[in-house]
Amino acid sequence: MTSTSGPASGPASGPALTLPPGLPHPFSQLILSTLHDRVVGTIIASAIGDAVGLYTEFLSAEKVARAYPARRFVLHPPEAATPFRRDQHRSWHRPGAWTDDTDHSLLILLSFLHNGGALDPADFANRLSVWVRNGLRALDTLPFGLGRTVGSVVRSPSFAEDPEGAAREVWVKGGRNLAPNGSLMRTHPLSVMCLSKDRAATFETAALFSVVTHVDPRCIVSCVIGTELVRGLVLGEYNDEAHIDAVVNAALEWYTPWAAVRDSAQGRDPEPPLDKEELSRHVNASTLEELDLDSGAMGYVYKCLGSGILLLRLAMRAVASSSTPLAAQVSLFEELLTPLVLQGGDADTNACFAGALLGAYLGYRALPPHWRDGLRHGDWLMHKAEALSRVVGVSPGTYDGRQDKDTAVDGGRGLLTEAQIEERIMVLQARIAQEEQEHNRRLAAEEKKDRGFMAQLKWSRSKEG
């Protein structure tokens, strides 16, 4: 697999974008400031969606309602953070932590920064292989939440030499019916990296990064649509629903000949055509309930794509119909994302993708502080988003990824041995066990207090009688 752009070295900086000629200087700075806000908004909002979505991941909407009766989530301040539903899935995490969804997007981001602005699917594949064994080394976090498809593909003996071939082998063995959302959840950084590209080049980039692990046509076309939507939202090219529909139609027209050329070049029989009606049902859903997010194949890529696009449509309608659109934008992110999270299902991935779309449309300044400021490793992520902004030319200054140890494959920390990984897992298990004991002690103390109160109440009433 080859890089989609040439190798780069040394500090990278803009201008990667060309502003209209003759634009007065103050206006050009204003445009760049807006782009900067949307670039950072894309990265941060997606991670927020991931972190908030973790609260309800893999739960039914009915269980979500029982676990979170307030129907609201708080990440900041830490002492007021909404506690997780107590179960094995969430016990490994702290409130405000993102999951593998954001980790995988960061592998693309760190690769881009390290390589001086070069897009290289092969380097991403290598980093993904390291993540499966070691987690995100830059933050010394373990690889929790590894999806079945990604795990099967990356652990394939042929993955290092031929990632797409390994992905295709897993897909074929699965009856050519595996279309999970594991590539869609990670592609939003590509949108920023493609700001200076046209639509066709963006489509191509998204497809090449999808097939590293996901070759099902539904996965590829979803990545193509999602990546181009975020790119156009950041640039301000897409601001109404007609633009969404145009991107979906363009992606379908682009995909068929693109796939035919690749099938021919690699000596494969042509794949069956995409079911356009099925895609249309998902991207034109009028309610979240229509998407049936908490049952069946929760991780189906069209469910993730459809839920994100629905929230984007609702945001566009709210802004267009408001007499105070700027005020409307400030509250929209939480108002739209919370109902999605309350649906349960693969909530962290759905909210991760939807967060990227809304962050690109609304910008960083519209993100709610009680979510934004409670994001674990939020300052670190902000620095990487700012570095990305410099490399693509929407904020001033230079950035040299080679001098940033975080961008190295091992995060500047070295790779872990099996013994070190086991030790970290044991420490986490001990922490979880201790927290469970403390929780049970608190429950016992509260029950004892309640029994004492009821006994006192019963005694008082008997005296009154």
TrEMBL record:
Keywords on record: Magnesium, Metal-binding
InterPro entries: ADP-ribosylglycohydrolase, Ribosyl_crysJ1, Ribosyl_crysJ1_sf
Matching Pfam families: ADP_ribosyl_GH
Transmembrane feature ranges: none
Gene Ontology molecular function: metal ion binding
Cofactor entry: Mg(2+)
Cofactor comment: Binds 2 magnesium ions per subunit.
Binding sites annotated in the UniProt record for Mg(2+): T99, D100, D101, D346, D348, T349
Protein name as it appears in the record: ADP-ribosylglycohydrolase
Organism: Cephalotrichum gorgonifer
